[in-house]
Amino acid sequence: MNFDLSEEQRMLADAVGKLFEAQAEDANVDSHKLWNGYLELGLLGLPFAEEQGGFGGGQEEIMLVMEAYGRTLGTAPYLQSVLMAGRLLALVDGGTASDALSGLLDGSQKYALCLFEPDTRYRWHEPGTKAERSDAGWTLSGEKRAVLNAETDTHLICPATTPEGFGLFLIPPGASGLSLRERPTPDGRIAADIVLDGVEIAEAAAIGDPANNGALVAKIVDGAILACCSEAIGAMEKLLALTVEYLGTRNQFGAPIGSFQVLQHRAADMLIALEQTRSMTIHAISMMDAPPTQRHVAVAAAKALTNRASRFVGSQAIQLHGGMGLASEYPAGRYFQRLTVLENMFGDSNHHLTEMEKGGGLAAAL
Amino acid sequence: MELTFTEGERRFRAEVREYLLSNISENIRQSVYEERPLPREWQVESQQILNRAGYAVPHWPVEWGGRDWSAVKRTILVQEIDQNSVPRPLPFNAALVGPVVAAFGTEEQKRRFLAPVANLDMWFCQGFSEPNAGSDLASLKTSAVREGAHYQVNGQKIWTTAAHKADWIFCLVRTAQCERKQQGISFLLIDLATPGITIRPIPTIDGFHHVNEVYFDDVRVPAENLVGEEGRGWDYAKYLLGQERTSLGNIGFSQRRLDRVRALAKARRGEAGPLIDDPDFRRRLSWAEIELKALEITQMRVVASAGNPAGGADPKTSILKIKGSEILQDAAELLLDTLGPEALTAGFADSLASDDSQGLDAHSSVLSAYFTSRKYSIFGGSNEIQRNILAKAVLGLGSKR
Predict the structure, then answer these.
(1) Residue B353: CATH number of its domain
(2) Which of A54, B269, B298, B313 is the most buried (most CB within 10 A)?
(3) Which Pfam families does UniProt cross-reference here (chain B) (predicted)?
(4) What range defines the domain where residue B386 resides?
(5) Are A28 and A77 in contact (CB under 8 A)?
């Protein structure tokens, strides 16, 4: 075992950190400029095999990118477009999917995977959205919920139930019958509720194999969950640093409040929660190539612990900042908002503990 | 990064397990699994078997029996020892007095002590704490006054584990009154057969007799038993803190307890159906499993890192101490809760019983294990002291002024 970064990984982490920090400080940045920065640094191709036009990065490299993303409260649709939709397109392969991946890799198109639906919480496995055959190809009807980064110019990948099983469909922006209701999330991003009202798409827009798509999406989702864990680790790291800095500079009763033991111990507990989360995420990353049940149990365990730590570190950071923690113009609150969004994504602790237990628990899986 | 064990590390784990299972007797392992007190001769027998394979003191210098294995391998070793219910090498010998003598002792002391200490032919106990020197250890008062070729020792040590089984005690004693209380402390080895030493048991809430008070009344100790320089004892004690970190998380021990919880909970009824399927019980077990797996990686991160360049202790070891004790305590609570009313009536350890297992059977050891587990967040620097260390040494939070 060895937890030190390789030379290449150190260079990647440095470069990504510099880019994200510059972007976070750039008052005039827009979504195009933001994405272009990712393209120029090679981040759009990072997780893809070289023969697919990528750079062959693995979950460890994604961890480095997402920790930096979390530290700087990134807003670009990297998780959605590259790590979810992109990696799914790469796994599915085939003509339409390959073309779509090319559009993603050259920065001209953004993608989003629409997983969740009304009243099914985090269970995406049996979509209520239906796809039926039509003269032209397929007709899709149903609703999707809280699709992060889905905007009017985003290409959507929609899971839908077909007579053959778990279908995956590419829907171009502006398709007739498609409507998006975009809402701001508390952490400065966009999520959309989507209605598919008899959306007509071509035969070739159905990608993958309905018998196998569910397993592929499961793998993508597990990877995305770990990306969220890494993002939360980056956000917690920065939030703890902000908090410690505040404790050292804020004076009350004639002393820096960081000299009070009860606050010191709270900060120590935040550090412990962060480091345990980092360790559990490292473990789950090492399990990404294990058989699906073992992989999923490890990922679910990592997300459950990340969620608990995120809520503890986030809420206690606000507490230790006092009134300043509640002020929007001070950064601590923004990190708490991001951590809260991440906690919700792909499932709360209850969901992931249930998943872990269904898989036989950590002990049985290892 | 290499986030999984290498082929060599896996092979090492398999070798260790094979050796332990085929050499340590079933009686001993069953007793450890059920957390009954271990007869002295079993502890000795087990350590000698470990020592034959280089498993007792692998972290010592090679010329004194060490093995030059990586910290990751040594961590695997201690996890296998714990998980397979093998008694650990006596920590006072292997982790405490041995490394100090090896690092600061004279050649004569090394020749005299190290081999018997490794083989448990000589059993040491630790004389650090005193009634008014617990977390504030440097306040210790037991005095050693040089008189020619001897030190005259007077004072009292407390919480001395297994003093009643030990042959020797290593002590921090005050040899000079200095301005800073950390100065003037010396590290002295004392034969417990010396006249003037009285050992009194302290029965504890777990029903066991494992700790004692040790009184020194004009005890004459040969000056040649001083380790290192007079007055440098505090430095040597601090040196120990930076030493073997491979077992701090108690990973294998907690794993063994949780395995036992799982086995018992599968066999027993809960409020409705098997206890293991009770949602609340299951959830507590799941959290313990998660925290333990995370701590196993934290443990590996601490030992695999190049370490603190300054050479002292990695302050992150405090995380191992805090979390490791909390998980052990959670596991003990789960263990107790699996038994229901039977936990009370199966009997409770009798610290005055003359038999080696102090009247314990397999069930009642669960109750004793529960009580005894409170000690893990207290000894070796309480969890509150550990949080002070994290706040100051890692986070840089200051004191008043």
Answers:
(1) 1.20.140.10
(2) B298
(3) Acyl-CoA_dh_1, Acyl-CoA_dh_M, Acyl-CoA_dh_N
(4) 248-394
(5) no
